[in-house]
Amino acid sequence: MDGMAGSDHAASQGIDTRDDRSMPERQLAERKSMLRRDLLAARVRLSVSDRKAAGRALRDTVLGLPETGMAGTIAAYLSIGTEPGTAALVFALWKRGSYVLLPVLRPDNDLDWASYEGPDSLAPGPHGLLQPAEPARGVAAICSADLIIVPALAADRQGYRLGRGGGSYDRALARVGSAVPTVALLYDGELVDEVPAGPLDQRVRSVAQPARGITRLA
């Protein structure tokens, strides 16, 4: 078996064969920054109507997942800026009777969690975020979730995601058991061949895209 075929086989088995996991931290950060810049620029070029349509499609996709129907507790997030809109998804999950946890950003960039009790339960947070005004339940509250919906700028087919660079979700996902389904919400074209990843980067197990629906990953 030649090197390329061996690498493809390993990837299909969820085995990480890339060398960027041992890349010097500064070089890894530069690669992530360059990819992040390109992805953010592409999102800015999307029209408002395109973003709204993407949010509706992602909402319907996530609501149709078997994992969503079986989940008693769902950790989700409220989108900001050019992210695919999630307000309608969060509201729909809550109206269906799921117990919805939303992140509360801590000063150290870790994520606390509090319950969503409808649109009136939200308050302004740092960096333009809307956060639940309910009492925080601690960083370990995410461990009670049966489904976790996370933001991402991109993901690759091994499940590595590219976030905003604060490391908040990598810390949160590191607390979650391997059997818990995790889904990153992307625009079409943001499932890429490779996302630069270091030893602290956590994988997601699937991504949702507006046109392609769900793609199962590592």
Shape: globular
The structural domain count equals: 1
Q: What string gives the helices and strands in order?
A: HHHHEHEEEEEEEHEEEE
The separation of the N and C termini measures 23 Å
What is the CATH T-level topology? Rossmann fold
**Could you name the CATH class?**
Alpha Beta
Rg over CA atoms, rounded to whole Å, is: 17 Å
Number of helices: 6
Strand content: 15-25%
Task: Describe the strand arrangement of the main beta sheet, using strand numbers.
Answer: 3-2-1-6-9-11-12
Structural class: alpha/beta
What does this structure look like?
The chain is of the alpha/beta class and about 220 residues long. It has a single domain (about 25-215), classed as 3-Layer(aba) Sandwich (Rossmann fold), CATH 3.40.50. The chain contains 6 helices and 12 strands. Strands 3-2-1-6-9-11-12 form a 7-stranded mixed beta sheet. A 3-stranded mixed beta sheet has the order 8-7-10. A two-stranded antiparallel sheet has the order 4-5. Strand 2 (about 100-105) and strand 3 (about 110-115) form a beta hairpin. Helix 3 (about 50-65) runs parallel beside helix 5 (about 85-95). The protein is globular and about 45 Å long. It starts with a helix and ends with a strand. About 35% of the residues are buried.
